[in-house]
Amino acid sequence: MLNAIVFLIILRAAPVLSSWIPSASNIFVEVATWLEPTNNLLAITEVNGPEGRTRRCRLMASGVDDTDGLELAVAKCGSRGIIDLPHPRYIISRPLDLRLEHSTLNVHGFLTFTDDLDYWKSNHIAFPFQNQSLGLVFHGHHFTLDGHNTGGIDGQGQKWYDDARREGNKYGRPMSLAISHSHDVVIKNWSIIQPQFWASLVAWSRNVLLKNVYVNATSYNPESWEEPDGKSWLQNTDGLDTYNADNVTVENFVYQGGDDCLALKANSTAITFRNITCVGGTGIAIGSLAQYPGVTDIIEDVWIEDVKLLPAPSNQCALFQGLLLKAWGAETHGTPPNGGGGGLGYAHNITFKDIYMEGIIRPIVLQSTLTYLSNVTLSPGNFEWSDLHFRNITAMSKYNRLIWLDCPAQHPCRNFTFRDMHLIPGATDHPELRYVCNNVVLGGKDGLNECHPSDSMLERREDGWPHE
Ligand SMILES: *[C@@H]1O[C@H](CO)[C@@H](O)[C@H](O)[C@H]1NC(C)=O
Ligand SMILES: *[C@@H]1O[C@H](CO)[C@@H](O)[C@H](O)[C@H]1NC(C)=O
Ligand SMILES: *[C@@H]1O[C@H](CO)[C@@H](O)[C@H](O)[C@H]1NC(C)=O
Ligand SMILES: *[C@@H]1O[C@H](CO)[C@@H](O)[C@H](O)[C@H]1NC(C)=O
Ligand SMILES: *[C@@H]1O[C@H](CO)[C@@H](O)[C@H](O)[C@H]1NC(C)=O
Ligand SMILES: *[C@@H]1O[C@H](CO)[C@@H](O)[C@H](O)[C@H]1NC(C)=O
Ligand SMILES: *[C@@H]1O[C@H](CO)[C@@H](O)[C@H](O)[C@H]1NC(C)=O
Ligand SMILES: *[C@@H]1O[C@H](CO)[C@@H](O)[C@H](O)[C@H]1NC(C)=O
Ligand SMILES: *[C@@H]1O[C@H](CO)[C@@H](O)[C@H](O)[C@H]1NC(C)=O
Ligand SMILES: *[C@@H]1O[C@H](CO)[C@@H](O)[C@H](O)[C@H]1NC(C)=O
């Protein structure tokens, strides 16, 4: 940095400096060393890199609100630059949609959301799918978000969990991080703690790599620990969802929370998950799909390998499903997020390999009558599943079910194969529930000859779940 020219931009004039500041904004001062870090200070250095001149922005934390500072840093260094956030805590008080190209954002501490619920419920970036909400969006291409194993995002989710007690998809809960309309993106060594809703989303994007990512949604409210269904109010704290996304890779991902660890929503193609640990929640989900009448959802070319699904601490969200394939029923009842149905589409070429799970209620489930409305029943929908391959799956189930595939009669599941299955039930009553395959075309070489049609629902219910 020797001989580098340092530009200091004063966002808001500190009183001590105001005597020599001739005007309020954009003052360039040549200095040799950093001044004492002051609130709302952005320092820019220009360095000559191998690809030419590069700008490097270093933003100090204000302690109050860092949204203006972040926007300015992105405006100055978000294109062919580097942005450094060295401090432990940067406050996000309003929705941000930031553009990055050929640049890196180094977040050494946490981008911390304010938890003024009323504010966020009426101020967020709309995400049309399921009428959901975004808090922080990055869009662009060839950019990296690097949390250096010490930083990322703190959603301050506890108030959101308390507010959404027993209410799925409550309106206005912003997702902590969205990558949208982007390509060639890397997110690495990055944590998202206490997400308000889904921790992260990749939408309308391609070529995205998440490597060494950690998500943890924990309820510290003892009231939530007494819930009969064991969900601890942590529902909708998904780790990552993909939507209209192509070529997304997730490697070395650790999740604790109360919903899908990883979920593929409509139009997720060429997706690879490798070395994933999920503690509590509802496992790895393909879905939900076919929620919107007349819309075709496509899932294709998915590889999911080396996954551990482990039980959560007893006061957090239990582990419900392991591998969960879920499509809405045939009729349309209500509107999204919790109503809908009647959509179309298919999932094709999915492999699950080297999966370990324990303490799980339903290890492998396929649903075709999904609705989140408790007062309606839908008949099996029109979403089709084919070429699904399960290899080396170890599951210690909590109750009776091991595999429960409930495919639509009008679109049977085709070309499902099972190899090296090590499945152990946790309950010995109703052995007929262990392997249920409704409308699955099984050949003889598919490795699941014990699977049979059944409508029985006689599972154990002593801890209030399942309650279908
Ligand atoms: C989203 O939900 C909110 C709150 O229920 C509602 O006011 C709004 O009309 C909904 N928007 C859409 C597009 O459904
Ligand atoms: C950050 O992640 C990379 C892989 O993306 C890894 O090689 C590196 O060791 C990590 N950094 C630290 C500080 O662990
Ligand atoms: C998929 O994305 C990775 C980066 O994550 C990239 O290296 C690779 O070339 C992409 N594959 C295709 C087919 O575009
Ligand atoms: C999640 O956070 C809680 C509270 O800090 C901690 O007890 C738990 O071990 C964490 N889970 C993982 C998987 O790191
Ligand atoms: C798998 O992920 C865990 C957690 O991120 C990490 O500690 C471990 O080194 C990874 N294993 C491999 C083989 O990369
Ligand atoms: C998914 O892709 C199909 C085919 O391109 C398209 O018709 C459909 O609208 C897309 N679905 C969503 C939810 O974007
Ligand atoms: C199935 O998906 C995998 C994983 O994306 C891919 O490597 C493979 O080429 C696909 N198979 C076919 C026949 O397209
Ligand atoms: C099967 O999966 C387990 C994890 O459940 C893994 O430890 C083991 O190495 C895998 N076996 C083979 C042959 O890959
Ligand atoms: C289900 O309940 C909702 C209110 O929660 C109501 O609007 C709807 O009409 C009910 N549907 C049926 C089929 O009873
Ligand atoms: C079943 O899936 C495998 C792997 O995707 C594929 O090679 C094979 O052709 C499929 N078989 C049928 C009968 O579709």
From TrEMBL:
The keyword Lipid metabolism does not apply. It is an enzyme of class 3 (hydrolase). GO terms for biological process: cell wall organization; polysaccharide catabolic process. GO terms for molecular function: galacturan 1,4-alpha-galacturonidase activity; polygalacturonase activity. Keywords: Carbohydrate metabolism, Cell wall biogenesis/degradation, Disulfide bond, Glycoprotein, Glycosidase, Hydrolase, Polysaccharide degradation, Secreted, Signal. GO terms for cellular component: extracellular region. Residues 1-18 form the signal peptide. It catalyses: [(1->4)-alpha-D-galacturonosyl](n) + H2O = alpha-D-galacturonate + [(1->4)-alpha-D-galacturonosyl](n-1). It holds the Pfam family Glyco_hydro_28. This is galacturonan 1,4-alpha-galacturonidase. It comes from Kockovaella imperatae.
